[in-house]
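MODEL INPUT / OUTPUT PAIR
PAIR INDEX: 1
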Amino acid sequence: MEDGLAEWGQEPDRIKRLKEAADFVIYTPGSTAGLPVSILRSFAAPPQVIRDDPEALRDRINTAATSLLGLVGVSADPVKDREHILLSSLFNAAWSAGQDLDLPALIQQIMTPPFEKVGSST
């Protein structure tokens, strides 16, 4: 292995510095064997500084909706697909008000959205 690394210009001292500087972890969704992963943490309202920045808030909402849909096997276009638009609207309504969401609340809001209409009427 050392010969292969040397061919790539990676000296043993450089590899050692990387090992000392990096934090290597194994994430384990649904298990305590490593560091557990929870998608539910992403449902917490972002900090005020992000909520005050429309672009940062939109990015956070888009990421949350896309990630959640990806977990259930749905590849949705953020602009065209109603699943993404609904989830994004739910996150926007809650997070703009500084409210966290959890899975039961999100399911309830999907069944009974806290708004009458999404998008424009044009």
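PAIR INDEX: 2
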Amino acid sequence: MNSRWVDDSNSALLTDLYELTMLQSYFAEGMNETAVFDLFIRRLPPTRNYFIACGLEHVLDYLEDFAFAKEGIEYLRSLGRFSDSFLDSLHDIRFTGDVYAVPEGTVIFANEPLLEVVAPLREAQIIETFVMNQIQLATMAASKAARVVSAARGRTIVDFGVRRMHGADAGLKAPRAFYISGVDATSNVLAGEVYGIPVSGTMAHSYIQAFDDELEAFRRFVRSYPTAILLIDTYDIKKGTQHVIQLARELGSGFHVSGVRLDSGDLANRTAEVRSMLDAAGLRQVKIFVSSSLDEYSIERLLTNGAPIDGFGVGAHMATSSDAPVLDTAYKLAEYAGRPKLKLSESKMTLPGRKQIFRNPAGDIIGLQDEHLTGEPLLIRVMTEGKRLHPPESPQACRDRCRAALATLPQSLLSLAPAEVPYRVDISSELLRLKDRIQHV
């Protein structure tokens, strides 16, 4: 329990204090009837036209194992804020509810429920912080990565971002979200092992510097990795390219280097020079990869200007979603004890009752769960009485779903610029009537 890492033994305490103070009050008042909470994102960031739903598997793992450890309860006792009877009740609390969710890799839009939790009030309340944290992180990462992949126009994308991510949990889970959105591989070995994502990497400048001579560094590296991608900008890009050409002459038919990488400089002009030199030397099969503070905007500019680039290593900007580093995620009560609930706060009004999203060619309709509307229902029951209904989906299955979903969007939504005509999301007449009736009670 004293672990300095978040794990199954202490994750119940990864919550805001007010979740526990509310829980004690519910306990004291005997309130624990069935509650319905919706998790949604209030608005699209200015640079976004859509989201990619992600993070569900992390949430389901957490819910299946949810429990307070004895050490955690004793820590809460030491705070002097909670009654003994309430703390004793925490020993037995588990998540026993149902979960409805939009499958990972699905394209979604503002105010559409990604997740609906139906559970006894205390169980549904205490999970709020962790569930929001996981869905927000993964959906933010997947949505950013989808834009990077789109900008690359079919070129290879490798995630280089773990060293710039905000902590180890993000460092492990964001590569999974990237992969779901179409990123080809990650440099993160642990993410590769845990999620089965392809791993990829080249070398660092320090490897070149460790030798007295750049060419000798190349010679030594290809002894171990004949198909390596060689980093050619440690000292001088032109000389680095010449060293690759010289190495090819030395090795003859034994030369199998697959590519070179540039990590600095004017990438558009430099890659053109490198391509010309390699082609003149008969090395047309050697590909050119680039990195260096790339994002979807710089990738789009490079390719629009005709830069002869075969692949991109994308780090900090994708890792942190630098232009939209937070999503306005909310987890709000929609029903309690069979009565629909509504929040009327200015600019933060919610929709009452249990809901469903109906997807049609012309757009989406957010309606009540029991409405019979046209379209494909997006919210699927994934957990009953605290247990998964199906084994975890593979990242590849989610990736296939994401690819298919993005293929249905018009180019105006896939563009990096805000769409002049946003995707249409309507609220059903029945849901609007329910909202109006509650609002005026």
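PAIR 2 NOTE: The mean pLDDT is 96.
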